[in-house]
Design brief:
Strand content: 15-25%
Order of helices and strands: EHEE
Number of domains: 1
Number of helices: 1
Distance between the termini: 33 Å
Shape: globular
């Protein structure tokens, strides 16, 4: 597994991954958004990383964060 920064070309796969992710029965965080990066773009210095099977393999996870002051 490789962890790397999310790239614009990952957008479609990230949106698809979000829709397929289990969220439990009481909380629904999924949106059908077209731009996965829209939240990260709102916060300066945000971090968005992806996990891939191998160098050019499929996305298997995502991690994002930002410092909010």
């Amino acid at each position: 597994m490789i962890i790397r920064p999310a790239l614009p070309e990952d957008n479609e796969a990230l949106c698809r991954l979000e829709l397929l992710s289990p969220q439990g029965k009481t909380i629904r965080l999924v949106e059908q958004r077209r731009n996965y990066f829209c939240r990260a773009e709102r916060f300066p210095g945000s971090i968005l990383k992806v996990a891939v099977e191998e160098e050019s393999g499929p996305l298997i996870g995502v991690l994002g964060g930002a410092r909010c002051v």
